[in-house]
C-alpha cells in the first residue's frame, strides 16, 4: 500500500534529534454482493494513519490507527480497543492497544476470497483479547517468538513460536482465556511455496469446540492474476470458496469470489483500491 508523507517533525536546529514521520494510507472498494437471496451494491472507504520515529539511542517507536476508530483510540486508557502503540529495538517489539493474540499474530489464517471477505469463512477463529492488550514479539533469523495478554472483563494469555523461510513456514500457538471461562486452544499452521503456488494449512483444537477445526488454502499466481481456493471445517460445518483477483496496476484490482458456507452460497465482484 502506498504511503503519503504528511509531516516530518522533531527536526531541531541542533543535531541529535531524529525525524518523526506521520503517514497516511487508504483503501476503498465498490462492487456487487450476493447474500444468497438478493444482489446489492457495496462500497467502503478506509483511511489509516501511521506514526513512526527513532530515539537518540536508536529505539524505534510508533503508533497506528484508522480514521473511523480515532475516537476509541483517543479515549481508550485502560480499555483501548482500536489502534496500537509500539516501541522496538534489539530486545524485540512491544505493542499495546488493539493487538492480536500471540497465536493469531504468528499462526494466522489461510487465504480468503472475495472483494468483501464474504464472511471470512476461511478463518477458524482465535480467542482474541480486548482492552489495552499487550503483544511482545522477538525475532532472531528465521525464528520468531511471541507473548500476549489481555485485561479487564476477560483475561487472555497466549504464547506462540514460528520458523519461517522464503519457501516454507511452520507455527504453533497456545491461548488461554481465563477469568471464569477457562477456555484453551492450541493452533498449528504452516505454509509452503512451489513455483507460483502457495499452500497454507491451519489446525485448531479448542476445549470448547466439539471437534478439531481445519482449514486449507491454495493461492496460484500467474502474471497479473491470482486464483485462490479454500476449504474449512468448523467443527463439522464445512465451507469452501473460490476467488480471483487481477492487478490493474497503480493500486487497483478487480476482485471477486464465491463461497459455499454450508448453509447457502454467497458471492461478490468489484474493484479494490489501495492508496
Structural summary, described in words:
With 275 residues, this protein is mainly beta. It has one domain: Porin (Beta Barrel), CATH 2.40.160. The protein has 2 helices and 17 strands. It has a 16-stranded antiparallel beta barrel with strand order 2-3-4-5-6-7-8-9-10-11-12-13-14-15-16-17. A hairpin with a 5-residue loop joins strand 10 and strand 11. Residues 6-16 have low confidence and may be disordered.
CATH third-tier fold name: Porin
Order of helices and strands: EEEEHEEHEEEEEEEEEEE
Alpha-beta content class = mainly beta
Which sheet architecture does the biggest sheet show? 16 strands, antiparallel, barrel
Arrangement of strands in the largest sheet? 2-3-4-5-6-7-8-9-10-11-12-13-14-15-16-17
Report the end-to-end length measured between terminal Cα atoms.
Answer: 6 Å
Tally of extended strands?
Answer: 17
- Number of folding domains? 1
Sum this structure up briefly.
The protein has helices at 70-74, 102-106, and strands at residues 4-9, 20-34, 39-54, 60-66, 84-89, 92-97, 133-140, 143-149, 156-164, 168-177, 183-194, 197-206, 213-222, 225-234, 237-249, 252-260, 265-274. It is mainly β.
Which tags fit this structure?
single chain, 275 residues, mainly beta, Porin, 16-stranded antiparallel barrel, 2 helices
Give the arrangement of secondary structure elements.
Blueprint: E1 4-9, E2 20-34, E3 39-54, E4 60-66, H1 70-74, E5 84-89, E6 92-97, H2 102-106, E7 133-140, E8 143-149, E9 156-164, E10 168-177, E11 183-194, E12 197-206, E13 213-222, E14 225-234, E15 237-249, E16 252-260, E17 265-274
Antiparallel strand pairs: 1-2, 2-3, 2-17, 3-4, 4-5, 5-6, 6-7, 7-8, 8-9, 9-10, 10-11, 11-12, 12-13, 13-14, 14-15, 15-16, 16-17
